[in-house]
Amino acid sequence: MVYPAALSVGSCAGLPPIESELFKRPLRISPSSSSSSSRSFERRAKTKEAAIIRSVSIPPPRAVAVDSNQLGSSDPPPQIEESKKYYFVVANAKFMLDEEEHFKELMSERIRLYGERNREQDFWLVIEPKFLDKFPNITKRLKRPAVALVSTNGPWITFMKLRLDRVLAESFDSESLEEALACNPTDLRFEKPENWVAPYPKYEFGWWEPFLPPGSNKQKA
Amino acid sequence: MAAEMALLKPISKFNRTPTFQPNNRFKTSIIRMSSAAPTKPKKAAKAAIKETLLAPRFYTTDFDEMETLFNTEINKNLSQSEFEALLQEFKTDYNQTHFVRNKEFKEAADKIQGPMRKIFVEFLERSCTAEFSGFLLYKELGRRLKKTNPVVAEIFSLMSRDEARHAGFLNKGLSDFNLALDLGFLTKARKYTFFKPKFIFYATYLSEKIGYWRYITIYRHLKANPEYQLYPIFKYFENWCQDENRHGDFFSALMKAQPQFLNDWKAKLWSRFFCLSVYVTMYLNDCQRTAFYEGIGLDTKEFDMHVIIETNRTTARIFPAVLDVENPEFKAKLDRMVEINQKLIAVGESEDIPLVKNLKRAPLIAALASELFAAYLMPPVESGSVDLAEFEPQLVY
C-alpha cells in the first residue's frame, strides 16, 4: 500500500530510480470501473520528464529526499542527530480549528490513509508553537492564539496553503521533533457561532487533539 | 464534477464531438451493467438525453489554447510548485479503496417504492451524468496537455480517474433500480457546451466546489439524522466529496498560474456572472425537486442557501469578486425566480398551441431576465487569493 505515496514524493523530489522500480510493480485497479489507471500508468512510464521537472519554490531537494525515505519505507526514519526541514502554515486558532471545517476533514482523511498504509505520521497541529519566535514578520500579522500545521512533507504544506489560502507559510530546520513541535501551553475557547444555519451540528470542540504533537495529548486530557 | 451549470445554452453549431474513445475497461463494465437489466437501458438513456435548459451539461473547450496556456516552453515563468503539490495529492489516491459496494444497496433500493423511487433514479442519473461529463473533459485535457505540460496533464488524468470512479459507482447504484446509463451513447449523443478555457476554469471551479458543499452537507445532515438514510450511497459522500474539493483546488491553481484571468475588471464581471449562473441553476433545479430533499429530511431552500453561502465563501478565496449572497435581498430574488420558473413550466405543460405558449412565455422570460440582471448588479464583495489580492497587506491572519 505504500507505493503510490512513495511514487508521488519520488516524482516531486526528482528521483527517477524510485519511479522505474515502482513501475515494475503490478497494476492495481480499483474495484469500481476506474478506466484511466492503466493508461495514465503507461504514460507515466513514457514521460520521464514528469518525474524530473524541477520544483520552483517550496521544496528544496534535500529536505524532500528525507521525506521520501520516511514515506517510502516502513522503518522509522532517523530522527535523531540529523537536522530536518519542517514546513508549516499558520493562522489564528479560530480560523484553523473552528471556522474551516473542511480542514478537519482533510486532517481526518490523511490520518485514516496513514493508518491504512502503515505510514508514520509526519504532520501535526501545534497550538502557539515556540518556533514562531523566529518569524517576527509572521507574528506581527498574526492574531493569537495561533495554530500551525507542521509537516516534514513540503509539497503537502504547499497544497494546504493553496487550500486554506488565508494562512502564512514558511519553513525552518530543527534537529529534533520535540524542538520543532514545542509549544506554549494555551487554553483555547471559541465563541459559539451566533447564527448556525447549517442543517448539521458543528464538529466537536477538540477534534484536533489526535493531531497534537506526541506528549501534549496527555497534558490536554 | 458533482454539480451542473446550465444557464448558458449549448452552442448547437459546435458539432464536433471531442475525440474520446472510451477505454476498454470502462466499456466492458457498461455492457455488463446494461446486460444486467436487458429491458430498461434504452429507456434510461433516452430519459437522460432529454435536453432542458437546466440539465447537466457536457463541456468542451479550445484545447489548442489550453496547450498554449500551460506550455512550459512558452511560459517559462509558469510556477509549477502548486501543481507538483497537487500531483502528489492526486497520486496519493485517498479513495483508492473507498468505492466498494455491499448488499445493503440493493436491499435499500428495493424498499424505495412509489414516487420516491422515480425521484431517486433521477437523482442518480443526473449525478452520474454530471460526474461522467467531468470524466470526458478531464480525460481529453489530460491527453492534450501531455506533451506541453506533463504535470498538469497527469493531474487531469488522475481527476478523470476520480470522475470515472464516481460515475461508475452511481451507475452501479442505478443497477439497484434495474437501470443503467449507457455512457458510451451519452458521449456521442449529447450536446457539448463550448467554453473558452478561462470560462472552463470559472465554471468547473464552481462546479467542483459546489459539489463538495452539496455532498458534505447531505452527508453531515444524514449522519445527524440517520432515520433519513434511505440509501447507502450517502454514507460514501464524506470521502467522495474530498475528491471534488481537491479538483476545485486544482482549478484554483490553474487560475493562479494565469493571473490575467483573475486580476482585472473583466475578471470581476465574469466571476460574478459565473457565480450567479451556478447558484441560480442549482436553486431552480432543486426547487423543482423538493420531494427528493424533503425525502431525505432536508428543507430544500435552506439546504440550497447553506450550500450557496458556503460555496461563495470558498470561492472568495480565489475569484476577484463574488456575490453578496448573505444579503437577504439575494435570497428574495432567487425566490422570485423560482415563482417565475414555475409559471414557465406550467406554460410548457399546458395544452396550448406552440404560438400561444410562446406568447405566454415572453413576459415570464423577461421577468426572469430582469431578476437575474438585478441580482447580477447587486453590490459585489471584493475577494481573491491572498497570493494575488491587493488587500493582502492589510490582512491579519
From TrEMBL, chain A:
Residues 28-48 are annotated as: Disordered. PANTHER family: PTHR35319, YCF54. Gene3D superfamilies: Uncharacterised protein family Ycf54. This is Ycf54-like protein. Residues 30-39 have a biased composition (Low complexity). Pfam families: Ycf54. Belongs to the ycf54 family. InterPro entries: Ycf54 (IPR019616), Ycf54-like_sf (IPR038409).
TrEMBL record, chain B:
Pfam families: Rubrerythrin. InterPro entries: AcsF, Ferritin-like_SF, Rr_diiron-bd_dom. It is an enzyme of class 1 (oxidoreductase). GO terms for cellular component: chloroplast thylakoid membrane. It comes from the Eukaryota. Pathway: Porphyrin-containing compound metabolism; chlorophyll biosynthesis. Its EC number is 1.14.13.81. One of its GO terms (molecular function) is magnesium-protoporphyrin IX monomethyl ester (oxidative) cyclase activity. Residues 122-255 form the Rubrerythrin diiron-binding domain. One of its GO terms (biological process) is photosynthesis. Belongs to the AcsF family. This is magnesium-protoporphyrin IX monomethyl ester (oxidative) cyclase.
